[in-house]
Amino acid sequence: MIQIPRAISGNRTWLLTRLVINGFCQAAATVANAILVEMAFDKLITTANASFDNKMVWQIGLGLVAAAIVNALLRVMERADAERIGQDYAYEIRMILYERLMSLAPRALQNRSQGGVMLRFVGDLTALRQWVSLGLARLTVALTTTIASLAALSLVSSRLAFTVGLVLAIGALSSMKLGGRMQSVAKEARRRLSNLAANINEKVASIAVVQVFGQSQREKKRIARQSRRLEEAMVDRAMVAGQLRGITEGTAAIASGAALVVGALEVAAGRTTPGVVVAAMTIVGLLVPPLRDLGRVQEYWHNSRVALQKVEQFLKTPSLVTEQRNAPELQLGAGRLEFDCVSLKGSLHEVSAIAEPGKIVALVGPNGAGKSTLLSLAARLIDPDKGKILLDGQDLAKYSLESVRRAIGMAGPDLPLLRGTVEKNLRYRWRDAPVEEITRVRQICGIDAVLAELAEGEKTKVAEGGKGLSAGQRQRIGLARAILGNPPVLLLDEVDANLDAQATAVVDRVLAEHKGTVLIITHRKERLAAADVIWYLENGRLVEKGPPEVLLNSDGPTARLFRDSQQKVLSA
Ligand SMILES: Nc1ncnc2c1ncn2[C@@H]1O[C@H](COP(=O)(O)OP(=O)(O)OP(=O)(O)O)[C@@H](O)[C@H]1O
Questions:
Q1: Could you identify the atom of ligand 1 that is nearest to the CA of residue 107?
Q2: Which regions span the lipid bilayer (predicted)?
């Protein structure tokens, strides 16, 4: 199980140390400010008439300006360091999440909502970053500054320091008591945001379904309902956050008042000067901005706990593919692909078959028979529960995933084009492919004809999934992407389903010219003629295998499947 790094570790420990130093420096500037205020009060204001020192006024004035500038600069540095520490933490978790995402089998991800997964990368990371940079970092500096300033004050008047410290401590305790409530409202707000995001994400992806079935109004009502619920949860959260802020602001005001009252008593008792009281109030005044921010720290903390839980849950998703540590590279060979008693729960049962090098195997069978699963196993998009898959005698499970994928080319509806240019998609498998290889692939897949139809040729922009191109154009680019580099094994999943004769001709050309072994899933009888052998699957079992001329002319399940479908077409 991948461990989530601690918020403070590695490089971030140094950044936090810098923040602590910054806190001490802010305390020093605050205390310097307070001392100057005390001097101004005791030496100039209360004795102004006796001996007014013009030079001292200037010195104190300049000192106050210098302290203010230093404080402002320290706040700028603090903000930058706080952001750095939060961004660094978010970066580390983002990379862990991405690595995990890439190690998951597409099938493992299919059971999760896309919106939910997106939220891990956007909302949850924001919550974690906010906690570290706006919560933890702020807390560190504010605590350092407060403790150091109060310690300095206690040297002049311990009673004043104690009074201010006590009020601040009571304020902190009362805001902590609200923590439990904050946790539940933060969780609820997060849950509702997640529901809304998942729904909107799905509607964006399936806009045509909503429109075709005339459900726009119903879906609008659903979004409105979810938005209202989110609004309520957010207002609840804001109310608790407001209460927390009220407590911190009230605490600051009470601390000021308490310093004034206790200071008055101390002055009356002759234990301190009015200047010290004013200095104490100045310190409280300077502590107010950081304390005000602290009101939100708990909110950030609770948001981050919820986010962390979600991130942990995501990291625990079973990957369905396991790569051995330091797995060696698979050696490329002629492309002999062997399934040795392969089983996958719910999909395949003890499938054993060999695709000989350079042969074309047509996978046929009714829907849900396990054909696509067999291709996914060959590409190691999923690992079998039992049995082995061997490529040129090498057990795929023992070799690095990258080297296995280098040996495999794959095309089909589950492998859409990516956002970017046509060229980027063509070269996706091999960025620096030599011109001759690109030319070969372009020729086989009829890419030049596609480019001639596009205004900007290779530079034409493609949206996610290849939107913006016709199904035939997408199919050709997808095929070209798969055969680039001439992989020893080519896996084609219904690449010509529902396409015209021109598109079918492209598949014929690929089958004729590709030198490696090909496994092709097809529901077209004419496609079987090009195959060397047919594997017929049903209910996850390999029921029949043999050359097409034998299987299609026997009374076996393959012949029955095509006879039945033909009859259905004729009677329709
Ligand atoms: N993401 C998934 N999680 C769990 N089981 C799945 C998943 N995808 C498919 N299956 C199951 O695996 C079995 C085989 O499905 P598969 O898609 O391999 O069949 P197929 O022969 O390719 O079907 P079709 O011709 O409809 O594409 C089915 O019972 C299906 O329910």
A1: 1
A2: 15-36, 56-74, 160-180
Residue from 108, 491, 137 nearest 297 by CA: 137
pLDDT in tens, 81-97: 999 999 999 999 999 99
**Could you tell me if the ipTM is greater than 0.85?**
yes
Nearest CA to ligand 1 atom 2: 107
- Gap between the Cα atoms of 29 and 444, Å rounded: 74
From CA 160, how far away is CA 167, in angstroms rounded? Answer: 11
In which residue are the tokens 């992407």 written?
481
For residue 381, give both structure tokens: 């998009």
State in Å: Cα 348 to ligand 1 middle.
Answer: 9
* Selection from 541, 322, 514 nearest residue 531 by Cα: 514
Largest CA distance in the chain: 123
Class of the CATH-defined domain 11-315: mainly alpha
484 alpha-carbon distance from chain centroid: 30
Q: Which of 112, 114, 347 to mutate to test the pocket of ligand 1 (most atoms within 8 A of CB)?
A: 347
Residue nearest ligand 1's atom 3 by CA? 107
Residues present in the chain in total: 572
Rounded Cα distance between 332 and 393, Å, is: 11
pTM, 2 dp = 0.78
CA distances from 193 to 114, 190, 196, 423 (A): 14, 5, 5, 38
Q: Is 446 left (phi over 0), alpha (psi -120 to 50) or beta?
A: left
Contact in structure between 510 and 444 (CB atoms under 8 Å): yes
The 3-state DSSP class for residue 406 equals helix
What is the end-to-end Cα distance of the chain in Å, rounded?
54
Rg (CA), the chain: 35
Contact 479, 412 (CB under 8 A): no
Structure tokens at 170: 């009571």
Q: Which fold has domain 337-571?
A: Rossmann fold (3.40.50)
d(CA 186, CA 439): 57
Tokens representing residue 227 in the block: 């938005």
CATH 3.40.50.300 residue ranges of the chain are 337-571
| Neighbouring residues of 562: CB distance < 8 A, sequence distance ≥ 6 | 525, 528, 552
Residue written as tokens 């029955």? 560
According to CATH, where is 1.20.1560.10 located in the chain?
A: 11-315
Tens of pLDDT, residue by residue over 258-301, are 999 999 999 999 888 888 888 888 888 887 777 666 667 877 88
Contact 131, 306 (CB under 8 A): no
CA distance 464 to 487: 25
